[in-house]
Amino acid sequence: MTVADKTVLITGASSGIGEATARLLAQRGAKVVLGARRKDRLDKIVDDIVQAGGQAASMALDVTDRQANEDFVAFAKKQFGGVDVVFLNAGLMPNSPLSALHVDEWDRTIDVNLKGALYGIAAALPEFIGQRHGQFIATSSVAGLKAYPGGAVYGATKWGLRDLMEVLRMESAQEGTHIRTSTIYPAAIRTELLDTITDKQTLADMNKTYDSYQIDPERVAQVVAFAIDQPEDTNVSEFTVGPTIQPW
């Protein structure tokens, strides 16, 4: 199957990589279902897609709520009759040194980045097993491939996501459920990710890096489309995406 006519659920879809992916996939004929907390932003994106001749729907979604993830899958089935792909893209990055002890931010990061992905998988996995096809795509980070000072908790969630997606792929192969997985490791991408950083020095350092290197989220959206577009018998499991000039 190609991108066209697939129903693709996208979390964290109100801006950045999620928004760019929704717009691109809709242009290529996918039926996109957008989820995020900011429903007003989702509605604007859906309106744009529909006015351009695409198919889209949206629902307010807090990925840290397990029931909300199940409702999101049910909503997609009601709107478009099924689920083919889930793009686990919601995330935040309130980086700071461990010594700053921003423990509430640690908890929130784990809840969104890791537990949110687990809840998304739990909501769609029974559908994929039952229909014997499906695809999970997850946004990790280059911080899920190497360690960065200031990013201990964020990196821990992204390393965890890497393992989660790889084990999901292996178990599906063993069980014969034909579920594909792809994990994307972006470097500096122009998104709202830095808005969640409250530590002043960390924010200043990250702004300097991003101002020097960041590229548009459409670059990552193109990778998502590539992963979906592969034949059903082909799994491309990992992509690292970033600016050519950034030594990440």
From TrEMBL:
The keyword Metal-binding does not apply. Pfam families: adh_short. Keywords: Oxidoreductase. SUPFAM superfamilies: NAD(P)-binding Rossmann-fold domains. Gene3D superfamilies: NAD(P)-binding Rossmann-like Domain. Residues 6-192 form the Ketoreductase domain. Belongs to the short-chain dehydrogenases/reductases (SDR) family. This is SDR family oxidoreductase. It comes from Bifidobacterium choladohabitans.
